[in-house]
């Protein structure tokens, strides 16, 4: 068994809670470091084990991630917990490596237009960036897991439809560059289950023994249906955020990521054990309501409760 298979076993679904990074990307107010640590510890107590904890971006521009090293240390202190941080350039990668984070994520845009608009670089340059990240990982002391997300993989906010063949070429190039796995990201929530299922199935086939992650947004209400299709197509890593926090600067008015609580319930309903106590998970939303009272929280389970139980009675 490889280290990746140890963290993301082939025989079960791994759910990654991305609220601390993707969920906080655009917020005007954000939790204190102490509140983030309670968020993590309470989710850990509910059975969550995979956390995207922040980004190595300039603190002046993204103050919500200024404490990323402290949050990484919080995760590292919890037995069996796994932390993921985003790094988009060599400076960020070196900082991530120095932090000792267990996994580094990076991004390649599916379309040339989005790559230029979002990162001011070509897709080929982005692939070279992935290769450099993998080389730096190989030369590092602790050799973190590396994943590359293909953003806008199922529809682009600039160009519209995206050719799946183009996405699969990027998946192949990322794998050749040395990543441990690739994530397929419906960044602005364009797709429906048919598209998600077909692209995921193709990515799973291309990835061979390496896992495939699917990262979904609920912009058009398709998030849970798309997650179900991804599971059916062989994805075994799925992203979601507590309360559906998040959004995208390229989709004005869009809601955020798939609601993590609802995602856990979906997996359990399809026979995939998650090890997560959903009632305890829903209770963690109280931290978000206290720390970010202006943020809308989403979720069917928080509103209605688990089937056969009492309503959660948690304010949105």
Automatic annotation (TrEMBL):
In terms of PROSITE patterns, this protein maps to: AIPM_HOMOCIT_SYNTH_1, PYR_CT
Could you mention a single GO BP entry for this protein? L-leucine catabolic process
Where in the numbering of this chain does the Pyruvate carboxyltransferase domain appear? 13-282
Q: Which SUPFAM superfamilies match?
A: Aldolase
GO MF annotations, alphabetized: acyltransferase activity, acyl groups converted into alkyl on transfer; hydroxymethylglutaryl-CoA lyase activity; metal ion binding
UniProt feature coiled coil, ranges: none
Record's keyword terms, sorted: Lyase, Metal-binding, Transferase
Note the superkingdom of the native organism: Bacteria
Please name the CDD domains in this protein's record: DRE_TIM_HMGL
Q: Which InterPro entries match?
A: AIPM/Hcit_synth_CS (IPR002034), Aldolase_TIM (IPR013785), HMGL (IPR043594), PYR_CT (IPR000891)
Q: Which family does it belong to?
A: Belongs to the HMG-CoA lyase family.
**The protein, known as:** Hydroxymethylglutaryl-CoA lyase
Organism, per UniProt?
Bradyrhizobium sediminis
């Amino acid at each position: 068994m490889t280290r990746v298979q140890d963290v993301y076993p082939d025989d079960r679904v791994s759910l990654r809670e991305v609220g601390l990074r993707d969920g906080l990307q655009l917020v005007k107010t954000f939790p204190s470091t102490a509140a983030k640590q309670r968020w993590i510890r309470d989710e850990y107590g509910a059975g969550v084990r995979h956390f995207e904890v922040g980004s190595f971006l300039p603190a002046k521009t993204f103050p919500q991630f200024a404490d990323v090293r402290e949050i990484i240390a919080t995760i590292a202190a919890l037995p069996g917990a796994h932390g993921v941080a985003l790094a988009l350039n060599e400076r960020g990668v070196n900082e991530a490596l120095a932090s000792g984070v267990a996994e580094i994520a990076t991004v390649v845009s599916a379309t040339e237009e989005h790559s230029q608009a979002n990162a001011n670089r070509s897709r080929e340059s982005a692939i070279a960036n992935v290769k450099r990240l993998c080389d730096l990982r190989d030369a590092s002391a602790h050799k973190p897991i590396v994943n590359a997300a293909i953003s806008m993989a199922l529809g682009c906010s600039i160009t519209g439809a995206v050719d799946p063949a183009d996405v699969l070429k990027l998946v192949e190039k990322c794998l050749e560059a040395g990543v441990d796995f690739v994530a397929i990201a419906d960044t602005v929530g364009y797709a429906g289950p048919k598209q998600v299922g077909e692209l995921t199935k193709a990515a799973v086939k291309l990835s061979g023994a390496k896992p495939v992650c699917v990262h979904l947004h609920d912009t058009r209400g398709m998030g849970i249906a798309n997650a179900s299709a991804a599971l059916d197509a062989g994805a075994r890593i799925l992203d979601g955020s507590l309360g559906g926090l998040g959004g995208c600067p390229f989709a004005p008015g869009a809601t955020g990521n798939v609601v993590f609580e609802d995602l856990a319930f979906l997996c359990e309903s399809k026979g995939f054990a998650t090890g997560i106590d959903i009632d305890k998970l829903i209770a963690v939303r109280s931290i978000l309501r206290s720390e970010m009272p202006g943020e809308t929280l989403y979720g069917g389970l928080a509103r209605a409760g688990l089937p056969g139980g009492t309503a959660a009675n948690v304010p949105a």
